[in-house]
Every structure is written in C-alpha cells, then in structure tokens.
Amino acid sequence: MKPTDNPKTYRVKSFGCQMNVYDGERMAELLEAKGIAPAADGEEADLVVLNTCHIREKATEKVYSDIGRLQKAGKKVGKDPIIAVAGCVAQAEGEEIMARAPAVGMVVGPQAYHRLGDMLDRAVKGERSTDTDMPEDAKFSALPKRRKVAPTAFLTVQEGCDKFCTYCVVPYTRGAEISRPFSQLVDEAAKLVEAGAREITLLGQNVNAWTGENAKGHAVGLDGLIRELAKLPDLHRIRYTTSHPNDMTDGLIAAHGEIDKLMPYLHLPVQSGSDRVLKAMNRSHTAESYLKLLERFRQVRPDIALSGDFIVGFPGETEDEFQETLNIVDAVGYAAAFSFKYSPRPGTPAATMDGQVPREVMDERLQRLQAHLGRDQYAFNKASVGKTCDVLIERKGRRAGQMLGKSPWLQSVFFDSDLQIGDMVRAELVHAGPSSLEGRVLETATA
Ligand code: 5AD
Ligand code: SF4
Prior knowledge:
This protein has helices at residues 18-33, 59-76, 87-100, 116-124, 138-142, 170-173, 182-194, 222-229, 250-258, 275-280, 287-300, 319-332, 359-384; strands at residues 9-14, 37-38, 47-52, 82-86, 104-108, 129-131, 152-156, 158-159, 178-179, 199-203, 211-213, 219-221, 237-241, 265-267, 305-312, 336-341, 388-396, 403-406, 412-415, 423-432, 436-446.
C-alpha cells in the first residue's frame, strides 16, 4: 500500500491485561467511526494496531518480531500495512521503537489513544508520529460512543497506580491514579447495557481506589458506584478487578453481602506470603493483614471465590520465604490464581536489587506453586458439583455444539445444549474438571 492510500480495514491485537482489551475495543470503535472496517479472519489488514503489554518478559522483542511478521505477511499480498504500536510498550519505549522500526507509522500511549484518528490522517500522508502524553481525563470524553457489545463487557473506571511496588512498571506506563467521574461511568454503563451487555466488569489497576461524587454531590467509593449500576434493570452481573489490599473499604466488603448483582468473586493479589519479601516489594500489607481482610469477605459472603496474583523469585527470596507463599496459598484455598516468575523491568527499583534468583530456581518454585494452586482450583470446582446457579453464555465451546459460559464464581461452565450467546441459564453443575465444569440446563431465559 502506498502511504497516500486510506486504509479500509483494521485489526487491533491486544496483549496483556483486561484494561488493554478495553482500550483495544475503544480504539476499534474510533477506527470504525472513521469508516474503517474490521479485517476478515485470515485477511491481512491495511492498518494494524499492536496494543502491547510491558508487565513481564521480553515485551519489546515481541513487538519487533510482530512488526517483522506483519511486514512479511503484507509483502506476500502486495501491501504495506500501516502499523501502530499502542499500549504500555509504546509508552515505555516509544522513541526507541520509532528509531529502530521504520515500518511503524504511529506510536501511541495508553493515555493518548483518543488522538489515534489524527495520527492516522498524518500517517496516510507519510508522516510518522509519536504521542505518549498523559493528559488528565481528556481521553474518555474524546472517544466515540459505545457500539454493539458482547454480553460481557469491560468498563474502565480507574487508571494508573501510585503504589510503586518495586517490581512493577505500571506506575510509569499508566501514570498516576485517576478516577473517571461517576456520571460519565453511569452513562457509559447504561449505553453498554443498551448495546447488549448483561455483565459489566469494572476495571482499574487499583479499582478499589476509585472515588467520585454521586448525583447528589456526595463523595462515594467503588461500592457507591456499584450500587448505582445495580439499578440498571437489564444489567444482571457486576464484577470488578484488580483490587489492592490497602484500598479495601468497609463499604465494598459490605456490598458483597448486600448486592445480589455483585458476583461472589474477589481478585486480590498478595504476591508473596513472606513479610520480608512483601516489604521489599513495597506492598505495605503483611501476610496476616491480608488473611484478615479475606476473612471479612468470607463473613459477609461465605461462598465467595478468591483469586490472587503471585510472583516467585523476587530478588533475595529464599526457600523458606517461598515456603511462606505456599503456606498462605494453603491457608486461603484459592478458586483461581495467576502466578508469575519475577521479571526485572527496566527502570524499576527491584531490577537492580541484590540477590536476583537464578532462572532454574524460579522455574522450580513456579512449578511447585502452580501444583498447589491447581489442586485448590480443582477442589473448588469439585465442591461446586451439585450446586444450582445462573450461567451467562459467552461463546461457543471447542467441540461442535458446545456452548460456554461463566458461573457466578467465574468458573467456565460448558453445555452440550442448543444455547445462544447472551442466554442466562439456570443450571446444575454436574461434573468438575481442573479448570472448568459441565452444566445441565434447568431453565433458559434470554438475558
Ligand atoms: N515480574 C513478574 N510479575 C509481575 N507482575 C507485575 N510486575 C511483575 C514483574 N516485574 C505481576 C503481579 C501483578 C500482575 C498483574 O503481574 O503479580 O499483580
Ligand atoms: Fe503494579 Fe503494585 Fe500498582 Fe499493582 S499495585 S499496578 S503491582 S505498582
């Protein structure tokens, strides 16, 4: 494609967290508002947005190899795609990418992507541009309206992080904590529901740090927002992620015992079970304060499914300290979890700490940790067999005729029945696997 050709098709490839998925959807809407259509499956797009993640591993190398692959694939069909690099790698390493990869026409950070349209106009003229500004709150009001959405939708309510855990790049790539205004969020949620969403997951790097002012001008926390959204008649389920132990409020804990639409699931990363490691991570909670917090959730909602994030091999982590992580896992009994090997991130304090743990040690610890976590997830699933619950059908399963949805506890439940995406089924959970359950439909309603 010559630089002067207007792109007709686009593809947004999002990596990493759910917030990137949300950002990716908003960029897609923006491109569609400019008359660009999604590329068909298997077709090379005229414009590709690589919406990148910088949190772990060799993020930057992956971007370069993706760029190479796109150029090669484009050549085969005789076009030169316009490539945009977005997301956290763009924020952290944008200038270097521009210098090293001439094929990239645009570099746009997570707080600046509402300007992608203008950047594209320039790219079409052959002008390359970088925008990694962090203007406060301009992005959301500048984005186009929400379009038709799936039964489950994400809604970013809070962005950025002021916690500065010593291993993490997020405070640098996503900037300081900001909360989107209450009225803007209620409005966007209503539009998502109108467009077909039946479940909304509120997103934020520190989602439970969200604060705002309700319609009466009263200061409210995340529970106040959840209470308001629960009033939307066609919205059946509300979730939120990711929370920080230090921002947990009495109101949010209480909400789990009071609001039926708030699902019985809490993702609360702990990272390590060792107080020495937690301190070195700058987590500002202890293993004990974390466990006490979970206990309070269990008091108001005894069936709550708990989930967490873990890092093994943080600099200086000893075998005994790792054992403390296994102990906390055993004490909690997680329904789900995400566990990672520590990955030094450029510019973070931990990257230059003494006692970097050898890769083989990390591999071995991760394996042991995952054995405990897998065992607990399977146990949680087995304990669910015989329960009756609602399942919101989200997509087709892998086998022909199979449909897949989520239980209130965020377990995947599959059915060999004739169901539609968006159905809310009353189901009995009849069989448990390590990471999913089989359901039997008792009753179907179009949600
Ligand atoms: N190395 C490994 N894991 C990390 N995480 C964040 N930064 C790093 C890192 N440098 C994990 C944490 C966090 C999750 C989103 O990613 O567990 O909660
Ligand atoms: Fe990163 Fe810590 Fe902020 Fe989470 S709380 S985004 S791990 S700095």
